[in-house]
Amino acid sequence: MKRKFLTNLTLLIILNLLVKPFWVLGIDLTVQNTVGAAEYGFYFSLLSFSLLLNIVQEMGISNYNNREIARDQSRISNLLPNILVLKLILAVIYFTVSLAIALAIGYEWLQIRLLIVLLFNQFLHSLILYLRSNISGLQMFRTDSLLSVTDRLLMIIICSILLWGNVGGEVFRIEWFVYAQTAAYVITSVIITLIVLSNANFSKLAIDFPGILNMLRQSYPYALLGLLMILYYRTDSVMLERMLPDGMVQAGIYAQGFRILDAASMLGFLFAGILLPMFARMIKQKQPVGQLFSFSFRLLIVPSVTAAIALNFYRIEIMELLYRHHADEAAPIFGILMISFVFISISILSGTLLTANGSLRRLNMIAVFSVIMNIVLNILLIPGYQALGSAVASMATQLFTAILQVLMVQRIFRFRMITGQAVRFALFTGLLVLTALVAGVTDLPWVYGFLLICLAGVAFSFTLRLIKTREIMESLF
After folding, report:
1. Domain containing residue 67
2. Would the CA dihedral through 238, 244, 245, 249 be positive or negative?
C-alpha cells in the first residue's frame, strides 16, 4: 500500500510542481501587481466570501462519495445521477443564501456583480471536485493526477494571453481574471464528465429521492466539518474588509502574505486526496493503518517544517522580490502564516485519517471551538493590528486545531511511534533553526542561505531517520 501511495503521490506532486507554482507566482501574483493591492483586495475578500458558504452546495458529498466508491466501486452507477440532481438543488440554495447575506451586510452593486460570477465559479469547482472523487474512488490515481492540474493549466493559458497578449490594447482588469477562471472551469468539467461517464455502467437510470435524502443524512457531518474549516480558514479577509476603513487595502496586504501559504497547503491536500480512499479501504478491511500514516506524516511534515523555517527567515527578501507595493507590511504577516503551514499540514493528515474512520462528530466539535476562537481573536486583534492581527489569529487557531486532532488520533488508534517521532521532529526543527541563524551571521546572500536551509532539511531528515532510504526504495521498487 505504501508503494501505491508513494508512486501516485510522486506523479501528483510532479504535475502540480510543473503547473501550480507558475499559476501562483507567474499569473496570480502578476495580476495583483498589475491591478494593485486595493483592487486585488476587493477581489480577494469577495473570493473568500464566496468560499464561506461553498459547503452549502458541497455538503460533504465529495468526501462521502469518495469513501463510498472506494469501499464498493459498483456504487458509482447508482450514486452518480442522484448526486448530480442533489448538487443542482444545493447550488440554487447556495446562490440564494450567499446573495441574501451579501445584501444584508451592505455589499454594493459593483461587488454583487462580481460576486455572482465568483459564486458560479465555485459551483463549477465544486462540480469538478465531485466528479474527480469518482475517479479517485475508483483508484484511478494517475488519471486524477492529470485532471488535478487541468483547470490551472487552462487558466495559465487564458490569463497569459490577457496579461501579455495586448488584447484590445486595454489595461488588464480584475474582472478578466475572474472570467478566465470561469472558462477554464467549464472546459475542465466537460472533460471530467466524459471520463466519469465512460466508467459508469447505467443499466437503468433512475432518480431515487428517498435515496438522496438518505445520502444527505449520511453526508451532512462532512458538510458541517467543511463549513467550519472554511470559516476559520477564510473569515480573516472578509472581516478585514468589513471592519476597517481601508479594509480593501488591508485584505490585499493579507493576500500577499497568504498567497504562498495557500499554494503550499495544496501539498497537504494532494496527500489527503490519495490517502482518504486508501485509509477508508484499509479500515473497512480491518487492515492496520499505522505504517501508512507514519510514512505519509513524515513525508509531509519534513518539507513543511523546512519550508516554514526557510521562508520565515527570509520573509522580507521574498516579499520584496515578489511585490511592488506593501512588501514591508506583508513580510511579518507572511512569516506568521508560514508557521501556520506546519500546523495546517498536521491537521490535514490527522483529519484525513479521522474522516476515513468516520470520526466526524469529534472532528466537528474541534472545528466549532476553532471557529469561535478564530472569530473572537479577529474581533480583538483586527482593530489594533489590522492584517497582522488576522495572521496571529489564524496561527493560534491552526495550532489549537492541530494539537487536538493529533491527541484524538492517538486516543483512537494508539500509534506507538507518535512520541518517538515528536522527539526527532523537535530535534530536526532545532537543527534547522540553528542552520538558519548560522546562515544569517555569515552574511550569505539570502538565496544561498535559503538553499542551505533546504539542503540541511534534507540531510537532517535522513540523519535523524525521519525519512529512511530503505523505506523509500522498498516503496518504489
Report:
1. 2-415
2. negative
Over 369-391, what HEC string results? HHHHHHHHHHHHHHHHHHHHHHH
Residue 207 in domain? yes
Decide: 305 and 315 in contact? Cβ < 8 Å.
no
In whole angstroms, give the CA distance from residue 67 to residue 65: 5
Which of 45-59, 92-106, 185-199, 310-324 has the lowest average pLDDT?
A: 45-59
Closest CA to 299 of 10, 21, 17, 16: 10
In a domain, 452, yes or no: no
Whether 59 has a pLDDT exceeding 80, the answer reads no
CB count in 10 Å sphere of residue 190 = 9
> For 343-380, how does the pLDDT look when each residue is reduced to its tens digit (9 = 90+)?
999 998 898 898 888 788 888 888 889 889 999 999 99
Residue 456 lies in a domain: no
Which three three-digit cell numbers place residue 426? 523537535
**192 vs 143: CA distance, rounded Å:** 10
* pTM, 2 dp: 0.74
Q: How many domains does the chain have?
A: 1
3-state secondary structure string across the chain:
CHHHHHHHHHHHHHHHHHHHHHHHHHHHHHHHHHHCHHHHHHHHHHHHHHHHCCHHHHCCHHHHHHHHHHHCHHHHHHHHHHHHHHHHHHHHHHHHHHHHHHHHCCCCHHHHHHHHHHHHHHHHHHHHHHHHHHHHHCCCHHHHHHHCCHHHHHHHHHHHHHHHCCHHHCCCCHHHHHHHHHHHHHHHHHHHHHHHHHCCCCCCCCCCHHHHHHHHHHHHHHHHHHHHHHHHHHHHHHHHHHHCCCHHHHHHHHHHHHHHHHHHHHHHHHHHHHHHHHHHHHHHCCCCCHHHHHHHHHHHHHHHHHHHHHHHHCHHHHHHHHCCCCHHHHHHHHHHHHHHHHHHHHHHHHHHHHHHCCCHHHHHHHHHHHHHHHHHHHHHHHHHHHHHHHHHHHHHHHHHHHHHHHHHHHHHHCCCCHHHHHHHHHHHHHHHHHHHHHHHHCCCCHHHHHHHHHHHHHHHHHHCCCCCHHHHHHHHC
CA 52 from centre of chain? 14
Cell matching residue 322: 515578489
Does the pLDDT value for residue 429 go beyond 90? yes
467, part of any domain: no
